[in-house]
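ok trying this again, last paste got cut off
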Amino acid sequence: MLQTFAPIAFHDQLPRFLRMLRLLAVASLLPHSTTADAEEAASPIRAINAQLEQTGEKAKLVFETTAELAPSAHYVVDNPSRVIVDLPEVAFLFDPSSGQLPGGRRPRANASRLIKSYRCGLFAPRRSRIVIDLERPAKIVRAASESSKDGSRLSIELARTDVASFAAAAAEHARTLRAPPLEKPEQQAATPAGKPVVVIDPGHGGVDVGAAGAHGEQEKAIVFEFARALQAKIEAGGRLHAIMTRTEDIFVALDDRVRFAKQNNAALFLSIHADTLGEASVHGATIYTGSAKASDSEAQRIAEKENLADQAAGLEHKEDAEEVGDILFDLTRRETRAYSKRFAEALVSTWKDAGSLNKNPSRSAGFVVLKAHDIPSALLELGYLSSEKDLSNLTSPQWRDQAATATATAIEAFFAGREMEAPHVPPAVAATGRPQ
């Protein structure tokens, strides 16, 4: 079975393209530089096509590239089992979601294949990753890059193996592998004096595509565009300072998103998502706050799915360590959750007129990104990519602008309300805009 994938839409590569142009412009001013030198320095290696051929016993995944690469492959024993291929930065110029079924559905078990699905993208600064979900245990026969007169190719060849052999190989790789550590999100520039910081968290990114629409739409791109529009609205208001956990199409681990908010003394943390459901009739925005126990089964399902985002990027699954604190810690967390709920209520109220709301728009669950005990936090599910109505809205610049305006209005109202009640809240909250 041979699968060939079409080029990705140009707009998905626009930020990278603009960065390349800026670098080329600078290079043209340097002495003794040539156009070829500038292009080589400015542009990462490009992968322009991908082909997958597999049977029940073997699989071969081939990427056509503009130059040779140095791959590093290893195994991950988890659910599902995976093969991970780490690379220097690569610009994947085909649709990274093409290795998955449309609509974000889980592929059904199929005895005629080894590879269930795969995805690729930026994993960390100057590092890309290919994550291959396996249908059954497989061994890496070959992971190599080579050039010929027809161009360069990265080939990943797998063969079926047994469970014990796969587990042993994974354990050996874990023991010997010394991958470079992930670079943590950098702290932003100093906050303008007197302005509370709002951290906007566009969900997913890079190798973690998130949910997918029926026509190839990607959650990571939709929420990123909304986050940028929201940031611009907040900054235009002049009273608050808005920053984003990621400013490009790159993977950021869940814990690092929370850490980023803490590093930047966030007064409010808002994570942006757009999920899929099995029922196309369900539509509308939902606002979630953090809680130890989910408000309902659907909230529990969504939280469990979002909390596995790190696994989508090939990281080992780990149970979130339960935070144990003293009385002051517990009081702060309780107060912070009260503020979070107040913000969620303001957001629901504003969205009633500006956007479509889910029939049960205010929910709570144990989201990892909402676990900061001292930062009011919420997760805004813009809508569902599985709903044609929501999908039409989510891909509309006009709707995005309207919804971003409503969200910015709710954020402004939340901070205005806290200023009015300042004499009645703890000094630390009044002084910094957040509990300590």
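PB: full thing came through this time. Residues 1-41, 101-106, 422-436 have pLDDT under 50 and may be disordered.
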